[in-house]
Amino acid sequence: MTTTDERDPELEALLAFIRDERGFDFTGYKRASLGRRITKRMQETKAASYSEYRHLLETDPAEYALLFDTILINVTSFFRDPIAWDYVREEITPRILTQRNDNDSIRIWSTGCSTGEEAYTVAMIFADAMGDEAFVSRVKIYATDVDDSALALGRHATYSQAQLEPVPQTLRDRYFEPVNGSYAFRSELRRSVIFGRHDLVQDPPISRIDFLVSRNTLMYFDASTQERILSNFHFALQDEGFLFLGKSEVLVARSPLYAAIDLRRRVFIKVPSAAARDRTVPRTPRVFDDADAGDGGVVREAAFETAPLAQIVIDRNGRLSAANMQARLQFALGQRDIGSLLQDLELSYRPAELRSKIEQAYAERHTIAIREVEWHTGPDVRYLDITVQPLTSKTGELVGIGVTFSDVTRFRRLQEALQESKNEVETAYEELQATVEELETTNEELQSTNEELETTNEELQSTNEELETMNEELQSTNEELETINDELHQRTDELNEVNAFLEAVLGGLTAAVLVLDSELRVQAWNDSARELWGLHSEEVIGQHVLNLDVGFPVDRLRAPLRAVMSGTEPETELVEAVNRRGRPVQVQVRFAPLVNGDQSPHGSIVMMEVLEQE
User: Fold this and answer.
1) Which of 104, 172, 291, 343 is the most buried (most CB within 10 A)?
2) How far is Cα of residue 100 from the mean position of the Cα atoms in its chain?
3) What secondary structure does DSSP assign to 560-602, as a single string?
4) Following CA atoms 39, 44, 45, 46 in sequence, which dihedral angle do they give, to the nearest 10 degrees?
5) Using CA atoms, how far apart are residues 269 and 234, in angstroms rounded to an integer?
6) CA distance 201 to 224
7) How many CB atoms lie within 10 A of CB 382?
8) Distance in angstroms (rounded) separating the CA atoms of residues 589 and 558
9) What is the side-by-side strand order in the sheet with 398-407?
10) For residue 211, what pLDDT is reported?
11) How far apart are CA 455 and CA 411, in angstroms?
12) What span, in angstroms and rounded, lies between the C-alpha atoms of 396 and 392?
């Protein structure tokens, strides 16, 4: 079955630019949902086209973080889809524990973990089944995502009361501790959950996994990328390891690599006997810093020395730090070469140029592979696969580069022999073609019907995944709006309280009070001012004080107010005026500056008090 895949060239150019500049490869994501998320960010930045938005990324690198936060929707919760998690707790967890001896370690991988809720959900289920002591000593949970900010929140393991609502009360009381108004996952159990950045498309999978949780992550990728990721998952899982997917992800049900345990709850088991040709060959498994790595330095050194592949280690200063026995024999390295600059050794450019690849591995922080490099040794030609891999410490700091040389000459020869055999088979195949064509007519009719069914099924699956994606986007937007609404309510209540307090203060003063801004416009007019001059606050707010038509000679205010705004404190004045009843009164007028945080006047306060007539 063939389908047309019409893609926007500008969008593809933008995705290639992001991949090359930041190492985030979104080309395997579904274009419909990806286009919606990028368009949302373009609307917020008022970019009219993809090319205009690319120019914005070039001029404002901070925009990358906002774009990635928009694309990588962090919608998650504890015990999401409770029925499926009940099945995991009641059926899958006991099977995993039964398959392992009491002292065997149990390795769990939670992909697309976001802020860690699903990883801690798995932790609670296994700790509840095993007991805290056995859980801490035997279980390692690897929680991975491409969003560094979400991973940082997951490492803190601190959640609000609202986020803990889906957690049963018994588990909440047992595994969470109150901290400053929030709740933190217990620290002694938290150490069993290891957070790390991992890109399912680019990075190699973690190995020897017993239980792999990847819920509503695959649905963001297109079909070919999903198949490649599922193949890596197959490599990552132990024999009889379990895969737990989201409710909208069913592509795995048609894969020969897995068998369904419960299709409705999306729980599958690895098929260990699946043919190697049914999966892509994964890259070297990524190794996390495990506390259970108890081998001593002597054992590790012996394993490195006797490894069947030639391996060397380059430190951050560009010096040859170590070379195992195979490397020394293969490249004629002596003890005197250890500690030498790599650029001074023939190995740096023969059989392949290593210096540029090492710089690329440092810059991109992932493994660089060079396939089938020709190496001439006398009359013979050998072929090597070279892997250049960054080495990191427990803190994530780059400490050097490991280079592995794998001799694939035999496989290259086998490929050439295989190609010759294929050519012979093609000749025989042409002879059989005539017979096959007679069967093709019937087969095409069946194929046409099958393709129609597959097309309908794919359309339904695509629609289901799109709806699930849009649902998560709406949920994310709704949470943002709820947060903004709560802040607005809080600000409104605070403003009402301040206004009520100010009105109470001004209303309680017996003197008439006028508050003026820097342009001498009335900002406040209390009840005593209304009683004295006969004007309501609605009539004077916003009016220039020197334009007020009251029984007070307002021109007398000009000079004192000018003095107040210049920082000079004017003297109290006695002014003859006429009140609202037309009676002459003697008014004592005092002035004060209205200052802001830096103590500079940005307005003035005028207080008028009628003196009693003798």
Assistant:
1) 172
2) 34
3) HHHHHHTT--PPPEEEEEE-TTS-EEEEEEEEEEEE-TTS-EE
4) 80
5) 9
6) 11
7) 16
8) 13
9) 320-323, 310-315, 398-407, 380-392, 368-377
10) 95
11) 39
12) 5
Report d(CA 457, CA 1) in Å as an integer.
Answer: 13
- Cα–Cα distance between 6 and 499 in angstroms, integer? 59
The CATH architecture assigned to 508-611 reads 2-Layer Sandwich (3.30)
Q: How far apart are the first and last CA of the chain?
A: 108
Q: pTM (2 decimals)?
A: 0.48
Q: What are phi and psi of 131, to 5 degrees?
A: 95, 150
Residue type at 163? Q
Specify the CATH architecture of the domain 297-402: 2-Layer Sandwich (3.30)
- Collapsed DSSP state (helix, strand, coil) of residue 614: coil
The secondary structure of residue 222, as a DSSP letter, is: -
List, in sequence order, the alpha helices (H) in 380-526. Answer: 409-507
The closest of 183, 221, 215 to 201, measured between CA atoms, is: 221
Task: Read off φ and ψ for residue 33, nearest 5 degrees.
Answer: -70, -35
Contacts of 444 (CB under 8 A, 6+ apart): none
Q: Where in the chain is the domain with CATH 3.30.450.20?
A: 297-402, 508-611
Instruction: Name the residue among 548, 543, 550, 546 with its Cα closest to residue 560.
Output: 546
Contacts of 24 (CB under 8 A, 6+ apart): 18, 68, 146, 199
Count Cβ atoms below 10 Å from residue 489 Cβ, excluding itself: 10
Say if CB 417 and CB 434 are below 8 A apart: no
pLDDT for the residue 89: 92
For the domain covering 82-278, report its CATH number: 3.40.50.150
CA distance 148 to 567: 52
Tell me the C-alpha distance between 14 and 587, whole Å: 73
Q: List, by residue range, all CATH 3.40.50.150 domains of the chain.
A: 82-278
The number of C-alpha atoms within 13 Å of 229 and in the hemisphere containing its C-beta is: 27
Which two structure tokens, joined as six digits, stand for 549?
């038509």
Measured in degrees and rounded to the nearest 5, phi and psi for residue 194 equal -110, 115
CA 519 – CA 34 distance, rounded (Å): 52
Reading the block at residue 286, the tokens are: 């990524």
Q: Which residues pair with 611 in a beta bridge?
A: 586
- Distance, in Å, from the CA atom of 37 to the CA atom of 68, rounded to the nearest integer, reads 9
> Which one, of 602, 492, 495, lies nearest residue 503 by Cα?
495
Low-confidence ranges of the chain (pLDDT < 50): 1-4, 274-295, 614
Q: Which residue type sits at 276?
A: A
Cβ atoms of residues 269 and 258 within 8 Å: yes
pLDDT at 185: 94
SS3 state at 27: coil
